[in-house]
Amino acid sequence: MNAQQCLTYLVEGIHSTVAATVDEQGLPHTCAIDMMLADEGGLYFLTARGKAFYRRLMARRYLALSGMKGEDTLSTVAVSVRGWVKPIGQQRLEEILEKNPYMREIYPTEASRRALEVFCLYRGEGEYFDLSQLPPFRQTFSFGGEGARASAYQIDPARCIGCQACREVCPTGCISGESPRAIDPAHCIHCGNCADACPVGAVERPS
């Protein structure tokens, strides 16, 4: 899946997320926020200007969120995104209401909807994590010009001595049998066992 497909799944397949911001003291706050639209411009959601969430967004202009869907842990798909947001007033509001008609029940009149502000998460990075398959599948993505950072454990081939220590403790079997070893980032669950077990420090942890 590419970034656009991941964002679209977050909107259409998951929809409700838990979003995190920080206050003026740097302390975290979370709240439940529905993701309303996704397109080439980013991810769109809205809130009322009277809420503390709105004030934190305006102060920091940065947001992290996660959404998940599934009946239990081993049927769950999760998408997490973090990045920069900007207010766009009531642009796209009518489109949001058209695609999410339940919002008209929460804000039933035009006068009540004057409090709403649409935000666009326009540049960021994220992760798609699927536990409904074993081994689990992980994919990172970025959008809006955000550079993709290394997010998986890696083995330095210059330092790897080809022992079995990392493979013996890997729960998903994502480390190659060839020497020097290599980690498949699509199935690495970031447990850190390999880094702890490596006798020569060849495993590099993600930043």
From TrEMBL:
<keyword id="KW-0677">Repeat</keyword>
<keyword id="KW-0408">Iron</keyword>
<keyword id="KW-0249">Electron transport</keyword>
<dbReference type="InterPro" id="IPR050572">
    <property type="entry name" value="Fe-S_Ferredoxin"/>
</dbReference>
<dbReference type="GO" id="GO:0051539">
    <property type="term" value="F:4 iron, 4 sulfur cluster binding"/>
</dbReference>
<keyword id="KW-0411">Iron-sulfur</keyword>
<feature type="domain" description="4Fe-4S ferredoxin-type">
    <location>
        <begin position="183"/>
        <end position="207"/>
    </location>
</feature>
<dbReference type="InterPro" id="IPR012349">
    <property type="entry name" value="Split_barrel_FMN-bd"/>
</dbReference>
<keyword id="KW-0813">Transport</keyword>
<protein>
    <submittedName>
        <fullName>4Fe-4S binding protein</fullName>
    </submittedName>
</protein>
<dbReference type="InterPro" id="IPR017896">
    <property type="entry name" value="4Fe4S_Fe-S-bd"/>
</dbReference>
<dbReference type="Pfam" id="PF01243">
    <property type="entry name" value="PNPOx_N"/>
</dbReference>
<dbReference type="InterPro" id="IPR017900">
    <property type="entry name" value="4Fe4S_Fe_S_CS"/>
</dbReference>
<dbReference type="InterPro" id="IPR011576">
    <property type="entry name" value="Pyridox_Oxase_N"/>
</dbReference>
<dbReference type="GO" id="GO:0046872">
    <property type="term" value="F:metal ion binding"/>
</dbReference>
<dbReference type="Pfam" id="PF00037">
    <property type="entry name" value="Fer4"/>
</dbReference>
<keyword id="KW-0479">Metal-binding</keyword>
<feature type="domain" description="4Fe-4S ferredoxin-type">
    <location>
        <begin position="151"/>
        <end position="180"/>
    </location>
</feature>
<keyword id="KW-0004">4Fe-4S</keyword>
